[in-house]
Every structure is written in C-alpha cells, then in structure tokens.
Design a protein that fits this description.
By secondary structure, the chain is of the alpha/beta class. The chain contains 25 helices and 19 strands. It is globular. Bound molecules: adenosine-5'-diphosphate (ADP).
C-alpha cells in the first residue's frame, strides 16, 4: 500500500477503509496548519467551497467576504500585523483576478501573503479549449508576486505550501501565488504517506546579520552628522523588534520621522518625534538614517525642493533587501540585514559613550515642533457644524489617546492626509492605511483583519469615496459581529462635494456623489449600529458609545462640502497642461 497505488485502487479502498486515506483538501489544510496558519480570508465558490467548509471543520478560522479584493486586503494586513503569511482563498479566473490586486499590494508593501486560487484543469486551459473560467492564472500571477507555484499532485501539497510559506517570509517579504487546480483537491492518497509528505518550514525568518565593517562604516557616518535625522518605515514596524528600535533611536538621540504605518513604533508624542517639523528636518538635515523605509515616491525619492540642496546629505540605510540600496540616492553606509540584527549590532558598536547630536539642532527641531503643535491646537478644538477635518479629527485624536490599543484604519484623500498628521498613534502596529501604492478600498479588509488578528477595537476613518470601494464588506463586519467602528467623513464627493459639470450639462460633476447620503442606514440594514452626526461633540459621543459596546457601528459624519483639497496632499501628482488651464477657467481654482 502507498505511493504505487492508482486512484482506482484508492477508490476501492475508500469503500472499505476511508479512515486510512486522505485527500488534496485535507492535505492542504494540514499543511497550512502545520505552518502556523490559523485563519483563511476567502470568498467561496467553485472549486474551493468545500475547502473552506473543511478548513472550518478542522478548526481553522475561515472568514468569508463579499468580494475577493477585500479578502485579499485582509490577508495582506494580517501579514503585516502578525509577521506570518496572511492567506486568501479565491475561486478561479474572475475571483483570482479580484484577489490579484491585493497580492500585488502585499508584494509592493513587502508583506507576507499567500493567495490560493482554485483553477481549471491545465490540460484544458493550455490547449485553450474554453473551460469553465479558463485562465492561465499562474502566468498572470507571476509578475505581481514574489513567487508563484502550481501544485498538480496531492503528494506535492506539503512541498508547495512549504515553498509558499518560505518565499513569503524569507528576506524581503512579499506575496506568493499558489495555484490549486480543482482536480488536485479531490485526489486521494494513503493518509500515513500523506502525513509524511508534509513539511513544517524550519526558520522561515532567518536572521540576516550585517557585516562588522558595514556596521563600523555606519557608525562612522552617523557620528559625523551635525544635523542627523532618522526616518522609520513600516519595515521596522513589521520587524517586531520594537524595544530595540526604540533603544537605538533614543541612544542616538536624533530627531525622527515615522512613515505613516511606522507611527506608534515610538509614540508620536515622543520628545524626539519631528513629525510636526517635517519640512524643517527634511530640508536641513545633513545625514538621514533610514530604518525599514524606502526612498520611493512617498519621500519624493530623496530629492527636490523638500530635501534642500542636492548632494548635501549622506544616507545610511538598514534594509533586508540589498538591491534597495542606491535605488534613489547614493547610500553612503548600507546596512544589509534584518532590522533586529542591524539595530543590535549598531547599539553594540556605539557603546555607552555615544555623543548625541548638537543641542543647536535638536533644540531647533523641538522648538519648531512645539510652535506647530501649539498653532494647530485651537483648530482641533472647534465645534463647527457641519464639521471640518480639524474639528472632527481632533475628537478622534483624543479618543485614540484615551484608547491607545485601538487599531486605526485610515483611507481617503483628505481623510487620509489629515488623519495621518492629526491623530497621534501611541503603540506599534496600531495604524493600517493605503500603503505604498495609496490604494483606495483597503479599509474594510484591513479593519476586519485587524479585529480578527488582534482582538482589539478598530476605528476605521474613511473618506466617503474610499469607503465606496469596499462598503459592501460592512455586511461581513456585522456577520462576524466585529468590534469595528467606521467613521465616514462625508463631504458628498471625491476630494470635495461641491464640484460642477464644466460642460454645464445635467449630469453631476465627475467627482460628486449623491448629496447628504446616509451611510449609517446601510449599516442598520445589516443589523449594525448606524449614527448620523454633524458636530464634533456628537461625533465624540457616538464613537465613545461604539468603543464601550464593541458593536459593529457606522457613523455618518457630515463634513462641509467645501472642506478638502483636490487629491489631498498629493495634488502635484496630477498632470496639468497650459491648454487645459486656458480652456477651463475653473481649472485655475482647484
Ligand atoms: P514606508 O512606506 O513606511 O517608508 P517601505 O515599505 O517603503 O516603508 O519600506 C519598508 C522596507 O523595509 C522595505 O524596503 C523592506 O525590504 C524592508 N524590510 C521589511 N522587513 C524588514 C526586516 N525585517 N528587516 C529589514 N528590512 C526590512
């Protein structure tokens, strides 16, 4: 008995002794469980409906969504939060494509995720015979994933899952695609042989220790800085060595800027935090130390007006990915390795007699921070109705300070930019947002993952436009009775709600929505709590109530129609032309 038995032999055995057999469904579940996967984010359908049922029967948490994109975003967020691959499961072709956006998002953000999609039979797909949902999914996934594999035989499931887990986690994390043809799931094999074929990945997150000469070089460059700055990115939040990073930042004594999802790694209220003096520190610093942050578009590639004189800065960078170095600017001291190993080695090399940066620099940064915080404070206390961003987000800032374990999910244009700068985060990995691509629609998937993975209360601050990309998932929030409070910053449109049709026709402007829409009533339709508020005091009361009850809640927060800027803080990325400016007088006003 064993591997030489045909499927017919096994079918005969199934008649008399089914308990001695296993199948593709169960091997896949066993392989995932063996590698620590406890939760699957999925949308059921052919050929994976039973896979979800069996996984649930085998004790896994299977969260069913309404659309694969959001199941995928949940898996991506789970990967960031847990440092383990988040798993999303979809049906073939259209479901796979829906999930693919999230896989690409995970890869772009360097988060571990595995997208498992059912697929049609290779023999039919490859001859393009027109199968049900025919698509060469493996080929399509490849450019969007860190790795992509197809499993054709039940005996290889252990291998396929092990390869996926290791690829997702090792080195720079990323998204992995696992193609699972329907027929594989039904394949039967001997249970003992099946068990033996599974692989528990050993050390999927191996240490990557920097070379001593690289550490010495970094210490040398850092020690010569007169006006140093640290930029902490979400790679450092992902690395989960929070105390070490804090120790390093405090020992060096440099001002630091957290990138949006690194907020809270050190509390935003920390005396070295320079967020409120961002322009000053980017422009004036002479040495920038990047910890798990890329010099990509989010940092204007380390050049341009915001960065001051070209070539006046030296850069030191910690990253696990060697090819990240010099991708935008010359890196004078690359530290290639994992953040824990690099931070530990640096601290050791620095020793106890480290000279902190000149008071002239740190004092100037602190003074600027204080002045800007004081200037902003009264704006955050206004009680205008309808609300503006400052008054409404000022309330949420207070509530997050009072409840620092709440996970803040945030997306939109103005709702994102304003919340990112106004709402302080006090603990690591308590902020999930649109990530490296600036995707709209991550909100509900991220909120659901945050609630499932952490068990904490979630507050999702959503632009009304961003919410539209994922709003149907409030049914999922209600179905699983998750402690998610969603605040829709409703200004009746994309960017703002007062746009006009420049052609003068009857159709609404391309950027406006139905006026005074009641998103709270959508929530009530699914049995959740719906609230409608138009002033900061009412918003405070509604969010407090939601936090106290832990019930799924949606608060429709009415923001003034004219509040908000075109494209938030990144309007400069919109192309413009002199022709258009001359043709449409309205264009000048934006
Ligand atoms: P942000 O958008 O916050 O600036 P990025 O996503 O641009 O952050 O950068 C994160 C970086 O962190 C990536 O270049 C990635 O390779 C790196 N990274 C991720 N995990 C680790 C780790 N454990 N150790 C070192 N670098 C890491």
């Amino acid at each position: 008995m064993g591997l030489d038995e045909t499927q017919d032999d096994l079918a005969a055995r199934a008649e008399t002794a089914p308990e001695t057999l296993t199948d593709g469904f169960h091997l896949l579940i066993d392989a995932l469980k063996l590698n620590g996967v406890e939760t699957i984010y999925n949308v059921p359908g052919i050929p994976i409906t039973d896979l979800g049922r069996y996984a649930q029967a085998q004790g896994m948490r299977v969260i069913s969504f309404r659309h694969e994109q959001h199941a995928g975003y949940a898996a991506a967020a789970a990967g960031f939060l847990t440092k383990k691959p988040g798993v999303c499961m979809t049906v073939s072709a259209p479901g796979f494509l829906n999930g693919l956006t999230a896989l690409a998002h995970a890869t772009t953000n360097c988060w571990p995720m595995i997208l498992i999609s059912g697929s049609s039979e290779r023999e039919v797909v490859d001859l393009q015979r027109g199968d049900y949902e025919e698509m060469d999914q493996l080929a399509i996934a490849r450019p969007h994933a860190k790795a992509a594999y197809r499993i054709l035989e039940a005996k290889d499931i252990g291998l396929g899952v092990a390869r996926a887990v290791r690829a997702a986690l090792t080195g720079r994390p990323g998204g992995v695609y696992l193609d699972v043809p329907g027929a594989l799931l039904g394949q039967v094999m001997d249970a003992v042989e099946g068990q033996k074929s599974l692989i528990e990945v050993v050390d999927p997150n191996p240490k990557s220790v920097p070379a001593p000469e690289a550490v010495a070089r970094a210490v040398d460059v850092l020690s010569k800085a007169e006006k140093p700055l640290i930029i902490i990115g979400k790679g450092a939040a992902y690395a989960q060595c929070d105390d070490l990073v804090r120790n390093l930042v405090e020992t060096l004594g440099f001002p630091y800027l957290p990138m949006s999802m690194a907020k809270g790694l050190l509390p935003d209220t920390h005396p070295q935090c320079a967020s409120a003096a961002r322009s000053l520190v980017l422009k004036e610093s002479d040495c920038v130390f990047l910890i798990g942050a890329r010099l990509n578009w989010l940092l204007s590639h380390g050049e341009g007006k915001a960065w001051g004189e070209k070539g006046a800065k030296s850069f030191v960078q910690i990253d696990i990915e060697p090819t990240e170095m010099d991708s935008n600017q010359k890196i004078s001291a690359p530290l290639i390795g994992d953040i824990e190993s690099c931070a530990g080695a640096l601290l050791e090399a620095i020793g106890s007699d480290w000279k902190k940066p000149p008071e002239e620099w740190t004092g100037a940064v602190s003074a600027k921070v204080q002045a800007n915080v004081e200037r902003m404070a009264p704006k955050l206390r206004n009680n205008n109705s309808p609300m503006d961003y400052q008054g409404s987000l000022g309330v949420l800032k207070d509530l997050i300070a009072e409840n620092p374990d709440v996970v803040l999910v945030n997306e939109g244009a103005n709702a994102l930019d304003q919340a990112r700068s106004i709402i302080d985060i006090h603990k690591p990995r308590k902020r999930l947002d649109v990530g490296t691509w600036g995707i709209m629609g991550i909100g509900m998937g991220s909120a659901i993952a945050a609630a499932i993975e952490t068990g904490n209360q979630v507050l999702a601050v959503e632009g009304d436009s961003a919410f539209g990309f994922c709003g149907m998932e409030i049914e999922t929030v209600c179905r699983y009775n998750l402690p998610v409070c969603i605040v829709i910053m409703n200004n009746n449109g994309i960017y703002r709600g007062d746009g006009e049709n420049w052609g003068g026709g009857d159709d609404p402007s391309t950027t406006v929505f139905v006026k005074d829409a009641r998103y709270d009533l959508m929530m009530q339709a699914f049995g959740g709590e719906g609230r409608h508020v138009d002033n900061p005091d009412a918003l405070r009361a509604a969010v407090k109530e939601a936090f106290a009850s832990g019930k799924p809640t949606l608060i429709n927060a009415v923001i003034a129609e004219g509040a908000g800027r075109e494209s938030g803080n990144i309007g400069n990325l919109n192309p413009s032309s002199v022709v258009a400016q001359a043709r449409y007088p309205q264009a000048k006003k934006i």
